[in-house]
Every structure is written in C-alpha cells, then in structure tokens.
Amino acid sequence: MTLSQHVLQQLNNFGPDAQDLSAIMNRIAFAGKLVSRRLTRAGLVEDALGFTGRQNIQGESVKKMDSYANDVFISVFQQSGLVCRLVSEEMDDIYYMPESCSISRYTLLYDPIDGSSNVDINLNVGSIFALRRQQGDDTDQTGADLLTPGHEQLVAGYILYGPSTVFVYSIGKGVHSFTLDPSLGEFILSSENIQIPEHGPNYSLNEGNMWQWEESFRDYIRYVHRHEVYSGRYSGALVGDFHRILMQGGVFLYPGTTKNPAGKLRLLYESAPLAFLAEQANGKATTGDHSVLDVKPDHIHMRTPLIIGSREDVALVESFIQGRKLEQPPAPLGVSSI
Ligand code: AHG
Ligand code: MN
Ligand code: MN
Questions:
Q1: Interacting residues of 20 by C-beta distance below 8 A, sequence separation 6+
Q2: Considering 19, 66, 222, 260, which has the largest number of Cβ atoms within 10 A of its Cβ?
C-alpha cells in the first residue's frame, strides 16, 4: 500500500479535507525523496557538503544541506494551494504563501535536516514535520495561533534517511512506517500500528554534557551504569535515535544544561511532533515537569528539555527527577541483554 492510499484509508473518507491531507502527505513525501536523492550522492555533487557560512536564529551554523532541504520544502508547497504557512528551524520568521492562504488553512512546521552534523560523515539524518490547522485569520501575521500545545497537531511524522529512507507518520490513529522503494519512487507500507515496547535496553543521550546537568540526571546515569541490562546508543541525530527507541524500546534524553537550561531541542518542530508519535505508539514524552504535548510555546523557536520513549523508562527517569528514588529505588528492567 502506498502512503497516499494509506492516508485516505486512515481518514476513512474521500471528501475534500481527506484529499487535501493526502495531497499534503504526498508533497512531504516528495520533499523526502528529493532530500534523500541529494544525500545519496552528496559526496559526488558540488555544494552538497559543508557549511554555508551563515548562522540560523538559534546561533547554529547552517549547513548547505540544511539550506537545500529547507528550500525543497518551500518549493514543493509553492503554488500547491495546500499550505498557507511554513515554520522551519532554518527560517527566523513564519513563511507565508499568499497564493495558498485564501484556500488553505494548514501550517506545516518542520526541521528540514535533523542531525545535520552527521551529513558530512555519511551517517543517518532525518526531517521532522507537524501539520496544524490555522485558528483564526492571522491577518496581522503574528502566527499567535501557533503558540498552542502539541495536542493541536493534526499530523506528525519524520523521514529517516538511513540505509533506506523511511517515512513514519501519525494522523492520530496509530503510528505507521513506509519504506522508499527507489525502483518505484514510492513509499510502501512496511509497519502498521507500531507500539513502543513498555521498556527497552537503550538509553540515548549526550553524556559529554554530564557535568552540565542537574544532579538527578547524573543519579539516573549512575543507576544505568550499575545495571548491565542497559546499552548506550547515541547517533547525534534525534530522528535516528528516536526511531531505534520506537522500534526497540528505551529512552532518549536531552536535559537542560548550564549553558542551555531548556536543552537544545525545539518544541514546535522537534519535540512536539515526536511526542505526538510516542504517545500514539503507547510511549511517553515529558520535559521532566510537564507532558511535552501540554507545553504552550512562547515563541516559534522555543526549546524544551526532552525525555521520550518507553513508558516505564520515561517513568524511571521521572522518578529520579522527582527524588522518589530516595524512598523506593526503581527496580532494574526486566530485559536480559540487547
Ligand atoms: P539539528 O541538526 O536539527 O540542529 O538537530 C540536532 C539535534 C538532534 O538531532 C540531536 O539529538 C542533538 O541535536 C545533538 O546535539 P548534541 O550534539 O548537543 O548532542
Ligand atoms: Mn533537529
Ligand atoms: Mn535541523
């Protein structure tokens, strides 16, 4: 089954809204194919690797692939009549598509290349996206309706550019994955109704930040180190690390640091879309204080700490944050080895 057939089947109707959503997903998939094609030949074509020399609004150096993928998402939606606004990690402000705004009520929020430090060394990267329905007219172009919790997301997903290119999405009816068949140029259904295991062996975080975390995270890591059932797995690309946890169980963490108290990951186009997927797959996502999907952003590039994955593994981290470990140390996981 192809992706667009699947979307229509999930919506269980063929009305104009369903056709629009299916067309939007098709466009995102097309962007994914274009990015995937460039990545597979990045070492051979000019201007695919390295930095642009510019910095984005978060003060991070922009890679040529970040900029390319950002433009791909713009161009696949231009003149489509499908999406009125785009919000991207690589654009300071909301990008309006006036030609579509009179007929479209959708906003696409995206991280065009997630994990871009991996691009130059040919390791996995991803794209993350969320789709929201516009509330109100936004005539003054403030985008105020976008500063609402992640429950407002209609669709969320990601594209993982690994040995194969995989498209994972949820429209609020479970999580499904598709694998790109390059000979057909189509994403074909590979797993339906994916469930994150209740717990798993993987813990995924940048331990290089250990002395910048709050003590509770160091306590958690000491606990993990003392129990041999755990395996550290960190690729430097959230999409890849999350995909492992989605399929095998475990927990990904990006806590606040002394330098960045809210951590590194951006709510609207990184944490919230993955939290939507995690919850749809029976997992959990928290900032440590609140469910990620309850957090109301105060600006479009807001960051949040992220703890996401299997329910029991996220609960274990929370038990350290809340100091419950002092009363009742959590039991080791019931998994023997990876
Ligand atoms: P991006 O490439 O979109 O800026 O995101 C990078 C993110 C995420 O993919 C990854 O988990 C994290 O940054 C890695 O950060 P550290 O290098 O600080 O571990
Ligand atoms: Mn990212
Ligand atoms: Mn990015």
A1: 82, 104, 106
A2: 66
Indicate which residue's Cα is closest to atom 14 of ligand 1: 236
Given a cut of 80, is residue 125 above it in pLDDT?
yes
CA within 13 Å, CB half, 289? 6
CA distances from 270 to 2, 40, 199, 305, 318 (A): 25, 24, 22, 11, 21
Domain shared by 138 and 12, yes or no: yes
- Which DSSP helix (H) or strand (E) runs through 61? strand 61-63
Report how far ligand 2's centroid is from the alpha carbon of 209 (Å).
18
Same domain, 65 and 126: yes
- Domain at 287, CATH number: 3.40.190.80
Determine the pLDDT at residue 333. 58
- Ligand 3 geometric centre to CA of 177 (Å): 21
Ligand 1 pocket test target in 73, 111, 114 with most atoms within 8 Å of CB: 114
Distance 269 CA to ligand 2 centre (A): 8
Minimum CA distance residue for ligand 1 atom 6: 115
pLDDT score of 325 more than 80: no
Using the structure block, give the residue that is written with the tokens 């997992």: 283
What would the pLDDT profile of 36-84 be if each residue is shown by its tens digit?
A: 999 999 888 888 888 888 888 888 888 999 999 999 999 999 989 999 9
Provide the pLDDT confidence category of residue 136 given band limits of 50, 70 and 90: confident
- CB distance 206 to ligand 1 below 6 Å: yes
Ligand 1 atom closest to the CA of 116, numbered from 1: 2
Instruction: State in Å: Cα 102 to ligand 2 middle.
Output: 31
CA dist list (Å): 40 to 49, 69, 165, 224: 12, 14, 10, 37
Model pLDDT for residues 254-280, shown as the tens digit of each residue: 999 999 999 999 999 999 999 999 999
